[in-house]
Amino acid sequence: MQDILKELSDLVNSSDATLKFYLGVLVGIVFVIFVRFLSFLKKSRKPKGVYIKGDRGDILIHQTAISDFINKVLSGRVQAQVQKVFIYSKKANHYLTVYISVPPGANVTETVKAIHDIVFQQVSERLGIDNLEKVDVIVKDFKTKEKTLEKQNQKLIDKIDDTAEELS
Amino acid sequence: MSESSDVNLNNSVRNGIHISEDVYSSIVSSTVLEIEEVVQFANSGIVGGLANLIGKKTSDSPIHVDIDEESSDVTVTINLVIKFGVFIPKVVENIQKKVTTSIKDMTGQTVASVNVRIHNVVKVEDVEEQQEAEEEA
User: Fold this and answer.
1) Would B1 be classed as within a structural domain?
2) For residue B75, pLDDT beyond 80
3) Which residues in chain A have their CB less than 8 angstroms from residue B113's CB?
4) Reported pTM
5) pLDDT tens for each residue of A3-14
6) Residue B54 and which of A11, A116, A144, A145 are 20 to 30 A apart at CA?
7) Do B115 and A47 touch (CB under 8 A)?
8) Which residues of A touch B84 (CB under 8 A)?
């Protein structure tokens, strides 16, 4: 192994211009093959998300988009923070798993129920995913990023102040 | 060089007129960005970026155009970021309708399907905040 590395190092440090040219070409070819291989691997892997068939073409709502959507929908409405969202489909039905963290002292049963209701309603109303069969809410831990919650609360307070000013 | 050898598989040939994939991409890009609910095209990621670098377009590119060799029908795949709060199927239907009409009107080519992939949903305020922060930096 060391011999091969030494030979390679000698090749790279060689002052022969022709040799350096061929080495450059070889590196270029290897790079192109590598990128093509990566894009082939990516192409062969079906992206995770929900596919909705349409007359003019398909819609794919990526798992990341669904996760972001749920995060935004729940933000400020429930005393919890969404950590991860997973979605998988079986036949025509979709199953959603939401991992959350709740602050200590929060009512978990009420929070989970609220998340269920909001997610079922909003996913159907806004994303157009009607066949959502099940939403599993998993409480992962009992802590939450205080700063984020404070920021969220501050945003809500600002919003209320603005509305109050407008009304007055 | 004979005329038939001019036919490039990446191009659509109709009545001797060669239309490049880039032309379709431009049409799609300008049409889609006119739609209010569309925030921006989604990034193609590291692999997509590298593939673009070597001139290979993947389905993760913001706009991916496939042209059927026999029928010359066009299939478009668009990767998008959409505004939060809109009804996605309606927005996508609008996108599909406008893209189909634009391509038909400008090139006369039939569009087989317009596939839309939603990568993210963002609040407009967040995007504006991010842009302001980037400008300040």
Assistant:
1) no
2) yes
3) 56-58
4) 0.68
5) 888 877 877 777
6) A11
7) no
8) 69, 72
The pLDDT of residue B112:
92
Residue B82 lies in a domain: yes
A126 CB within 8 Å of a chain B CB: yes
Q: Look up the CATH number of the domain holding residue B48.
A: 3.30.70.1350
In whole angstroms, how large is the CA radius of gyration of chain B? 17
Reported ipTM exceeds the 0.85 cut: no
Give the pLDDT confidence of B12-40 residue by residue, as tens digits: 665 677 788 889 999 999 999 999 999 98
Contact across the interface for B121 and A31, Cβ inside 8 Å: no
Residue B3 lies in a domain: no
- Sheet with A93-101: strands ordered across: A81-90, A93-101, A132-141
**Structural domain count of chain B:** 1
Residue ranges making up the domain that contains B115? 8-136
Report how far residue A78's alpha carbon sits from residue A112's, in angstroms, rounded to the nearest whole number. Answer: 9
Nearest CB among A35, A47, A64 relative to B120 is that of A64
Question: A97: which strand partners?
Answer: A86, A136
